[in-house]
Each structure stands twice: as structure tokens, then as C-alpha cells.
Design goal:
The complex is a heterodimer of chains A (about 230) and B (about 290).
Chain A (H helix, E strand, L loop, with lengths): L2 E10 L2 E11 L4 E5 L6 H9 L6 E6 L2 E2 L5 H6 L2 E4 L11 H8 L11 H7 L1 H5 L10 H13 L5 E5 L7 H16 L3 E6 L2 H4 L5 E6 L2 E7 H6 L1 H8 L2
Parallel strand pairs in A: 3-8, 3-9, 6-7, 7-8
Antiparallel strand pairs in A: 1-2, 1-4, 4-5, 9-10
Helix pairs in contact in A: 3-6
Chain B lengths: L2 H32 L6 H18 L6 H25 L7 H23 L15 E4 L2 E4 H23 L1 H11 L1 H6 L4 H22 L10 H16 L4 H21 L4 H15 L10
Antiparallel strand pairs in B: 1-2
Helix pairs in contact in B: 1-5, 1-8, 1-9, 1-10, 2-3, 2-4, 2-8, 2-9, 3-8, 5-6, 6-8, 9-10, 9-11, 10-11
Classes of the chains: A alpha/beta (about 230), B mainly alpha (about 290).
Amino acid sequence: MFLKVEDIDTYYDATHILFRVSLEVAEGETVSVLGRNGVGKTTLLRSIIGLTPPRKGKIYFQDRKINGRQPFQIARHGVGFVPEDRDIFPNLSVKENLEMGVQKNSGRSGWDLDKIYTLFPILKERRNQWGGTLSGGEQQMLTIARTLMGNPRLLLLDELSEGLAPLVVRAIKEQILLIQKEGVTILISEQDSSFVLDVSSRSYILEKGHVCWHGPSQELRDDSTILDRYLGV
Amino acid sequence: MTFEAFAGQTLAGVSLGMVWFLIAAGLSIIFGTLKILNLAHGSLYMLGSFCCYQVTVSLAHVAGNFWIGVLVAPIVVALVGGVIEVFLLRPIYKAEMIYQYILTFALVLIIGEACKMIWGVGYHSVQVPWPFQGSIGVFGLSFPSYNFFLIAMGPLVFIGLRTLINKTDLGRNIRAVTENREMANALGTNVPRVYTGVFMLGAWLAGLAGSLWPPVSVVALGSDMAVVIDCFIIVVIGGLGSLAGAFVGAIILGLTTAFGLYLIPKLAVAFGFILMIIILLIRPYGLMGEPE
């Protein structure tokens, strides 16, 4: 299996967030993780990249155990993480932000400055500006572009649409479709299912740190009662 | 005050300030990136002084022995810094601030005692090196040329550090880690190695300052605490984490100290603190610091 999360338990200090969560993603697939605010979606992605390592359970990426390694080591294996809070480097230029994503000698290729600037023309225009001067939507694009610079095989996208205008969300959705076409495997977390059900083939729904449902995204599109039960307000 | 005295004190103050700048710059960079207030920074300076002195003694008959010391001592201090970061600081980054103070204060005592055991309690002197033994005449007055060399070192190191931090990949990584260590880590930057590198760079600067100052002063125990207090004042005046602030702060404190010593020697110790209080009242985040 490309990515295999096996019965992980993750804590923030003393707070137990994830309970025996398991999840699988096949190569080339796009999988979404849905759930209300605070059910552990971000923690799940942070567990995979190693920023909040699980205390129990195992995580395999391309059949290699990655939990217990440092985030930078996991990133160098080809896992790219795009955080929800648009964690750009505000006092680095846009170009320097992109350079921070570069991983030398990774043996992977495909993305470089030229290609990124073609996909995100606004970043080319603003390449010499400080990252902090970009608008919210532009910063979100920069976080995605920055991670792509490392040519990840697996892309972890955390709540991209949060707090962004519908028009920007649509632009980002188009970019995700383009990234998919490049053959990048994607695990995307969202609260707003309308955004991800169209781009993902399978979905997991989290509730209070447990996986409470998983199956084809098609089923969620067809049967709104499941979504209402777990995501409805 | 005669013009001669005025010029003399200015020269002395600025050269002292430039040596302090080297130490304060390291203290400031380490604090900016590692978020560690290294109380032992003055100890690294003192260690540099003793190491450079040791080289001049061991190679007493070798030409240019002082310059060999200036080359070797900062590297020794940087290596000691590397060991301190990897084995002592690394395990306590996540602990509360107070543990950092206790640990770095323990290092002050350990390094101080180690220096005492190796070099004893006496004063050691280092000769003013070739080619700076002579004097340089300015406005018909003559001043020791070594002071001009010290003054030149400040801007040189300042420009070197600025270039390193703003123009190189390594500098970009340091800035990124300083701004958001977690994100830099998740993007594939070996953050622990950047930490070690930054601490070693700061230690190297302290060692360099320690090597350069003895020809105008002496090598002795106690310089560790004296220097670290002055450098704290400098980074607070200039703004923590600001290189330009450390530069300006060092010149201001150097001049204040030199003229304070000349005019009211009994109160000389207080001038730095008074200056710090005044500047903090006007600009609480320092001259070049940014409000949090």
C-alpha cells in the first residue's frame, strides 16, 4: 500500500485526539478526510508528516515505516504537507518561500520554478514581494506551490478552503485537478464536503477522533443522509 | 575635556563597542533562531581569550603566532559550542525557559572553573601583534593602530553576517527556521542541524571577539560575566534579534562606557544600565527591534 495508517493514537500533550485511526491511500488516488471542526483531521495529517507523532500504531509510506522519524526526514521521503493556517514565511520573498520547498538530491523531479509560475501566474508577478504582503488566497496558493517544489509523491492538504472566498476556492479546486493529472497522490482534509467530493474517489469521515465511516465518495454524493448525520449542524 | 582626550575616548569606546558587537551579534542570532538566552555567551568569549593566549604562548617563537591564535581559538570555541548545543541544549528546548537559564548558568560556572584549573587565577597578557604595534596620527594626535584594526572588524563582520543571512541558501534556511521552525521542518529542512550551525556561528563570533580583545586588555577570569552583562544591555538597547540593532547598540554602549569612565569613574558601572532604562522607556522593543 502507498500510504497505510495503522491503528494510530495521537495526543496533544495529555489530550487524546485520535483513537485507533486506520486509513489507506493507493498510489495515484485522491482521498478525502471529512469531519466537523475539532474531530482530529489536522492531527491526522500532522501525525503522518511527523509534526505530532502518534504514540501508538504505525504509519507506512511506500512500505517503509515512517512514524518515529523527524518531519524533515518524512518530507524527504516524498511526503508534502500543506498546512491549514497558510504557514508561509512572511519575511521571506515569495521566491525564497518557494525555494524552501526544494529538496535537493531527492531523485524526484517534475516541478520547478518555471512550472510553478505557469500554474500560479500571480506568484511569478509577486516573486520579489515579502510573503506576508500576499492576500489570503495568494498565501494559500504559495503554501501549495512551495510544497510542490519538493516534488512530493504524496500531498497532504489540510483544509485548503477554510476562510477563502468562493471564487478563490474554485481556482484552488482547478489547481488540485491539475496536480492530480500530474500523478500526485493526494490526501485532503475538509470540513466543507462540497469542495472535495468531486475531486476525491474515496472518503473517510472522522468523528471525535474515530473513523466512523469510509467508502467511495460517490456514495456520499448520492446519499446525503450520511453527510447529514456526521457533518450536519 | 581636551580634544585629545575626547578623540582618545571616542576611539577607545568605538573599538570596545566593535568587539562587543561581535559577541552581541552571536547572542542575538542565537536568541532569534533558537529562542535561547545563552547566559554562557560571555564564557565562550573568555574561553576564546584563553585559547588565543595559549596559542601565543605555545607558539611563542613562531612568527604571526597571534594570528594563528585568532584563526584557531574561534574554531575551538565553535566546536565547544557545537557540543553544548547537541548534547545539552537539544534535550531542553521543549522545557520551560527557567531550565535554559539554569543550564546556561551552570555552563558559566563549569567553563569558568575549567579555565581556572587550566590557566590559573592570574592575569595573562597578549602582545599587540604585528603589524599594528605602532601608532597612527590623526589631526596631529597619535593613536594605537590596533584600535583602528578592531574598529574595522566590526563593519566587516556586520557586512559578512548580513550577506550570509540575506544572500545565501544557508541564510535563507536560518531565516525560515527563525520565522517558523515547524514549517521549515515539514518542508525538509534539517532544523536540528540549522540550530547547531547557528549556535556554532554565535560561539565562533564570541571566540573571535575573545581572541581580538586581549592585546588592548588582559586575559583573566571574570571577563565572562562582565562581558555577558554588557552584551545583554546591547541587545536590549538595539532590539533582540536585530543585527543592525546590535551594531548601533554596541557603539552607543562603547561610547557611554568610555566617556563614563573618563568623566565619573565611580559611576561607570551604572551608565550602561541608566542608558538601557532610558531607551526602554522611549522604545520598549529597542532601537531597531520590532514590536511583538
